[in-house]
Amino acid sequence: MSDELVEKVRAGNDHAFRMLIETYKQTIYRTVYSVLRNQKDAEDVTQEVFIKIYTSLPQYKNQGFKTWITRIAVNHAIDLKRKRERQKEELQDEHSSEVNLGLTDDVEAVFFRNERRKQVLRKLNDLPEGYRDVVYGYYIMEKTFKQIAEEQQIQVKSVEVKLYRARNWMRKHWKEEDFS
User: Fold this and answer.
1) Burial (0-12, 13-18, 19+ Cβ within 10 Å), 46
2) Nearest 5 degrees, angle CA 91-CA 93-CA 98?
3) pLDDT at residue 176, as a whole number
4) Ranges for the RNA polymerase sigma-70 region domain (predicted)?
5) Rounded CA gap, 173 and 166, in Å?
6) All domains of the chain, ordered by start, with CATH?
7) Which listed site, 1, 58, 96, 154, has its alpha carbon 20 to 30 Å from 164?
């Protein structure tokens, strides 16, 4: 039945798409809710998922419609959840850096930290290639281990190990006078 409706939708039949929505809206909602755990977000994302399904129908290969739309729903919900977590981390980072800047750092300390950052940036290309992205992300962009891990699609522990090894490499190969 679903494949027949899909073909009608592809042919431009809007009523067939409404029937698909009616048939699968509870399935999509439950799937999205299981990821987001928030009713309002799940309702909004369910609507977004149906728009995405509609625009993605040309790529559908008539192999398990329910599985296909469920995968779209899960991926979309996970993307939203990750985006919200990143935004929350960024807000926390901004807040903590503002607090730190206002309470613990004086102008001189900020100046020296910025100078150190510039010096590391100048010497960054001397680092072995496997360490550059982690050092740049952590020291220059001031990203968290978690943010770096997500960007590089590796485990947080791998970021920690790379940074540890990079620091050892820098201690061994860079002289203190390189930074004066």
Assistant:
1) buried
2) 95
3) 59
4) 20-86
5) 10
6) 2-85 (1.10.1740.10), 106-179 (1.10.10.10)
7) 96
Rounded-to-integer distance, Cα 129 and Cα 163, Å: 12
Quote the pTM value: 0.52
User: Which pair of structure tokens corresponds to residue 71?
Assistant: 């995968």
Residue 27 reports pLDDT greater than 90: yes
CB 149 within 8 A of CB 159: yes
pLDDT tens for residues 37-89?
Answer: 999 999 999 999 999 999 999 989 888 999 999 999 999 999 988 888 888 88
Length of the chain: 180
> Could you give the CA distance from residue 66 to residue 42 in angstroms, rounded to a whole number?
18
Three-state DSSP state, 91? helix
Closest CA to 57 of 12, 119, 114, 110: 12
- For residue 171, what pLDDT band results from cuts at 50, 70 and 90? confident
User: What is the distance between the terminal CA atoms of the chain, rounded to a whole angstrom?
Assistant: 73
Maximum Cα–Cα distance across the chain = 74
